[in-house]
Amino acid sequence: MGTVNAPNNNLDPTVRVYDRFYGFDVQVPTEEWDIVNSFFASVFKTKVAAANFSTALFRVAQETNVPVLTLLSQMQNQNGIQVTGQLAYYLNSLRSPSTLLGVNSTLTPNFYTARNILP
């Protein structure tokens, strides 16, 4: 059994990031998870919000093949609203255009298409 002073190198030093809603599962280095999660914990008030934003950032990093620390460096010195907006931008690039995050205006469909849709 390893201790802080004598770590057990047989154990895998990774964190399993799993999102049950989207079925997202990835193993990340513990150091990267700690850095990302501590950043979001300093920006947001709750641990749940920090963990959710951390998971979302690792998902964006995996889908875009950009290192997570590069994405995180772009969010440095921003407040919670700016970080939320930037993460929404990244997540919108992965989502369908009909389900965009952070869009306040309602999209008006084409008249001829809209009349064929039943309420």
Description:
The chain is mostly helical and 119 residues long. Helix 1 packs across helix 2 (47-64) and helix 2 packs parallel to helix 4 (80-94). It has one domain. It starts with 13 loop residues before the first strand and ends in a 5-residue tail after the last helix. Strand 1 and strand 2 (24-29) form a beta hairpin. Strands 1-2 form a two-stranded antiparallel ribbon. The protein is elongated, with a radius of gyration of 19 Å. The chain has 5 helices and 2 strands; from the N terminus they run E-E-H-H-H-H-H.
The fraction of residues assigned to DSSP E strands is: 5-15%
The helicity comes to 40-55%
Shape: elongated
End-to-end CA span: 62 Å
Unreliable stretches (pLDDT < 50, length at least 5) are none
What would you call the structural class?
mainly alpha
Total number of distinct structural domains: 1
Largest sheet descriptor:
2 strands, antiparallel
Average pLDDT reading: 77
